[in-house]
Amino acid sequence: YPSGNLAIMVVREENQLICIAQEDKPRNARIQAVFKSGGRSTCCYPNGAVWINMNIQGGQYFDQAGSRVRRWTWPNSVTSPGPHVPLSPIFISLNRHMGVRILGQDKITVSFLAMGQQAKFNVGTKVQVSDGGRLPPAARLGRDELLLLAFRVRILRLLDRLRGCLNFPSNQQRDKIKLPAYLITQTSKILQLCTSPDVSDELRSSVMAKVNA
Length: 213
Prior knowledge:
Elements: E1 8-13, E2 16-22, E3 31-36, E4 41-44, E5 50-54, E6 58-62, E7 68-73, E8 90-93, E9 98-104, E10 107-114, E11 117-122, H1 143-167, H2 171-174, H3 181-193, H4 201-212
Antiparallel strand pairs: 1-2, 2-3, 3-4, 4-5, 5-6, 6-7, 8-9, 9-10, 10-11
Helix pairs in contact: 1-3, 1-4
């Protein structure tokens, strides 16, 4: 960024490349988008809510309240029985410098513009699911199980906050403390489960409200 803060980085994790875009902050910068070469990607609103979620079969677009606005399937994917939903081109701005353009599974671009110069990153991929390699159906959690998971994470976050209050009485010191990695991971996994088409908008909103309370 013009401020000198890191905006985009590309890292390798085992056999995958991962492109990470983050907000313009010197410390504790929130991740705004993650694109994996294996076909899984997520974009988030500035408040951290999931905006776009994609996998090797298709994607979903959500509003800031967590309600699904639309979904689509990639032309080359094999999905569960039902009509094929084509992708309508998507253009979003993560912030004043970064934007994402989605025209197809292999045509996803992150663009960065600052001080009259532009950089573009092609983060699309071509991952085809054949009949022989159809993914097994993911384990489905019921309403009560999802809510219990959300309550558990909420309680763990409250306990972590309480420990911070005991160890750091000053508000200024507490505000600099980041959530433990395991809590960030558990929160992310619950939000990922909520992006399933089988989860109603009402349940998704309830889970997100409890996790983020």
